[in-house]
Design brief:
Radius of gyration: 19 Å
Strand order of the largest sheet: 5-4-1-8-9-10-11-12-13
CATH superfamily: Ribokinase
Helix content: 25-40%
Largest sheet: 9 strands, mixed
Distance between the termini: 25 Å
Shape: globular
Number of domains: 1
């Protein structure tokens, strides 16, 4: 039987946003407006994207024994995810607070709490499921040591590791060595290589240098310009076929990563997989919201 399962390991978090005319200073209270609460977390977003786009998806994470955790479990049920979720008795479900000033500036505080409880023992408990998967998809909203351990275990079992290095943190050498496909944007690629953010370096050069770290396949996302694929000795820019008017780009990267994993799990070439991911991401930016923006397979033209 051909392996097709995509195992996603990462975070679930609730985003809470509120607008204000100006940010409060220390000790001050200011009026707010337009409070919104929404599902988030890069792991959850990517797992849902992969599931909506036709993938056979299992999702590994941890939430708190609280109302937000209950809402997460309902979401996973509604999205038909095989949710392998721990319930924490000591830590709350991850939460991010976002204040948005009338100028458009924002200030964000994120509490990565319950999701950091997933450890090596949890990966071992799912060793059979992991070995029967085709792809392990991860991001950086999880415990670094556990991600490194999971990547190594995946490699040992012939499972492809796709890694989205966002939001970027320093990656251990052992983790980099066990990644098959990496999907940074240009900023994250520079951070991985220790290049200053304001230094002008062509995406092609970034791709070459990332491959020089031992990563076989590099996909650098370029927003409305599509993505640069560096695979083997070939480097090619794969543009977005149909230009769209972007309304909200939040979550486009997560949609891209989930879509890429689905296409590769179905045996598409890397070029075809990037084209598929470009199309999914371009649909997502035409809508407000992250989960609301993720398209279904029926919306994509093969």
């Amino acid at each position: 039987m051909t392996k097709s399962r995509i195992m996603v390991y990462g975070s679930y978090a609730v985003g809470m946003t509120m607008g204000c005319d100006r940010f409060p200073i220390a000790g001050q209270t200011v009026p707010g407006s337009n409070f919104q609460q929404f599902h988030g977390g890069k792991g959850s977003n990517q797992a849902i994207a992969a599931a909506r786009l036709g993938g056979n998806v299992s999702f590994i994470s941890c939430v708190g024994e609280d109302a937000l955790g209950d809402a997460a479990m309902q979401l996973f049920h509604d999205e038909k995810l095989d949710a392998r979720i721990k319930k924490s008795k000591k830590n709350a479900t991850d939460v991010g607070f976002v204040m948005v000033e009338s100028t458009g500036e924002n200030r964000i505080i994120i509490n990565f709490s319950a999701s950091m409880e997933v450890g090596k023992a949890d990966i071992d408990a799912l060793s059979q499921e992991l070995s029967e998967s085709k792809i392990l998809l991860m991001q950086m909203e999880a415990d670094i040591e556990t991600m490194t351990y999971a990547a190594k275990k995946a490699r040992e079992n012939g499972v492809m590791v796709i890694f989205n290095p966002a939001p970027y943190r320093k990656m251990p050498k052992e983790l980099i060595e066990n990644v098959d496909v990496i999907t940074p944007n240009e900023s994250e690629a520079k951070e991985m290589l220790g290049i200053a953010s304001d230094e002008k370096v062509e995406a092609k050069e970034l791709g070459k240098q990332l491959q020089g770290l031992g990563i076989p396949h590099v996909v650098i996302t370029l927003g409305s310009d599509g993505a640069l694929l560096c695979s083997g000795g070939d480097i090619q820019l794969i543009g977005v076929k149909d230009k769209v008017k972007a309304v909200d780009t939040t979550g486009a990267g997560d949609t891209f990563a989930g879509a890429l994993a689905v296409a590769i799990s179905e045996g598409k070439t890397y070029q075809q997989a990037v084209e598929f991911a470009n199309q999914a991401a371009s649909i997502s930016v035409t809508r407000n919201g992250v989960i609301e923006g993720i398209p279904y397979r029926t919306e994509l033209v093969e």
